[in-house]
Write a structure and sequence with these properties.
alpha/beta, Aspartate Aminotransferase, domain 2, seven-stranded mixed sheet, 10% strand, globular, binds pyridoxal-5'-phosphate
Length: 457
């Protein structure tokens, strides 16, 4: 594919309106010569982006079971509502009475998120899940500081946690204590008890956890953390299994973030900005960015407002029955795949899973040499985006599969056929080391790419 610079046909086009605002920069800040930007006609520009889009793979192209990331279909009505000029042509500094609709969106979404999570107050400022975690942890820190309990500097995190959890806790200035998982894949409550003490600031947990398992000891877990003087943080990046069924607030959690760009169907990855609202119980609300003892702003104005509109559109168009149905279908789809693949693949955890499940390809690798990596590359040739790989870290050769509720049984049956066929290929001696071959860029030499990177043309 040609670069846009190689498409340069010297045609000057004025795509942008002339800017009416001017500002004289200090001469020493200015360039000596013009920037060399490509000049192409509108038609050539369209071809460039259409070609780029054709070479990318997204949830609109096909099955995308990226566990934990929830690549569900993004309904087009969300985009339609978010592009209404009443939303796009306003400015956060406008007088409040001129933007009543926008403030209503913020209030209504916050109210719905409170209802779904069992929290009392929400801030829409954070721009991503990890950003929300950081804000949530600062709330916990402010709470202990206000109680003159400053020796509470440890956050306890299960070893199956998403990598952002320990990273956010470290950024917020905490030390991290890892709780191991039991062989059933749940947090080890006896170990947790040993770690709790007067230096415990809190616990960070996601339930269902990253193995797709619901921790049935959750009430005991949050209770012993509270009794030790700590607070409970719920990583709600992915509420796909529990909407309308269970609420973090009822499980004993004090703070939660949710990812609008996962559960609430707003695009992510290359497709759009994220949003990671944080909810908390009323005793922490004063520390929120908007509160009277605020920990401070974490983002300009009201966060990624257009993402909030898309999420609210999703919530209102589904309604409470629709959200419940989405969760039940997400869990059903995951269990259907899991049980159909369970005879051939080694699935982690007994019994039912929630919205996702994890398989280990360690046994397959030992027998055939086909690793999770090779298997995932072979899936690319079949037109399937690989599942999340090598995560959670506690499972060797892990593939983490989340089909989501927006896939039909027809698609799931096809996926099962593909997995079984690849399994058969592996067992018959094909090591799949050359896959993928049918993609835009076929098997790359990752070792040379890492050792001798070519960083410019
Ligand atoms: C995606 C995810 C996060 C982080 O969210 P980002 O928006 O990527 O920062 C945190 N925890 C879990 C369980 C996740 O799936």
């Amino acid at each position: 594919m040609k670069l846009i610079f190689e498409r340069d046909n010297g045609v000057k086009s004025n795509y942008l309106d002339k800017c009416e605002v001017s500002y004289k920069l200090d001469d020493k800040l200015c360039r000596g010569s013009d920037v060399k930007l490509p000049e192409v006609s509108e038609g050539e520009l369209c071809r460039h982006y259409t070609e780029l889009a054709g070479n990318a793979y997204g949830v609109n192209n096909g099955f995308y079971p990226l566990g934990s990331c929830t690549m569900k279909y993004n309904p087009k009505i969300n985009e339609k509502i978010a592009s209404l000029s009443g939303f796009t042509d306003i400015h956060p500094l406008q007088p409040k009475q001129t933007v009543c609709g926008a403030t209503e969106v913020i209030e209504l979404l916050s109210k719905n998120l409170c209802e779904l999570t069992g929290m009392d107050k929400v801030s829409l400022q954070p721009a991503a899940g990890a950003h929300g975690e950081y804000l949530g942890l600062l709330l916990i820190k402010a709470y202990h500081r206000d109680n003159n309990d400053t020796k509470r500097n440890k956050i306890i995190i299960p070893d199956s946690a998403h990598g952002t959890n320990p990273a956010s806790a470290a950024m917020a200035g905490f030390e991290i204590v890892n709780v191991p998982s039991t062989k059933d894949g749940l947090a080890d409550v006896e170990k947790l008890k040993q770690y709790l003490g007067d230096d415990t600031a809190g616990l960070m947990l996601t339930n269902p956890n990253t193995l797709g398992l619901f921790d049935k000891n959750i009430l005991e877990i949050t209770d012993i953390v509270h009794k030790a003087g700590g607070l409970n943080y719920y990583d709600g990046a992915n509420l796909n299994a529990i909407m309308g069924i269970a609420r973090p607030g009822d499980m004993g959690f004090d703070v939660v973030h949710v990812n609008l760009h996962k559960t609430f169907s707003t695009p992510h990855g290359g497709g759009g900005p994220g949003s990671g609202p944080v909810g908390c119980k009323s005793f922490l609300a004063k520390y929120l960015p908007e509160g009277e003892q605020s920990i401070g702003r974490v983002k300009a104005f009201y966060g990624n407002f257009l993402v909030a509109i898309k999420a609210l559109t999703y919530i209102l168009s589904l309604g409470s029955d629709g959200l419940l149905d989405a969760s039940q279908t997400a869990v059903l789809n995951a269990n259907y795949l899991k049980s159909c693949l369970g005879d051939s693949f080694d699935i982690i955890g007994n019994g039912y899973c929630m919205h996702e499940f994890v398989m280990s390809l360690q046994q397959l690798k030992d027998k055939t040499g086909v690793s999770a990596l090779s298997f995932a590359k072979a899936l690319l040739d079949e037109g399937i985006h690989p599942p999340t790989m090598y995560f959670p870290l506690i499972v060797h050769e892990a593939l983490m599969i989340e089909p989501t509720e927006t896939e039909s049984k027809q698609t799931l049956d096809w996926v099962i056929d593909v997995f079984m066929a690849l399994h058969k290929r592996a067992m018959s001696g094909d090591d799949m080391k050359n896959a993928p071959q049918k993609t835009y860029i076929s098997k790359v030499d990752e070792v040379s790419a890492a050792r001798k990177p070519i960083l410019k043309a």
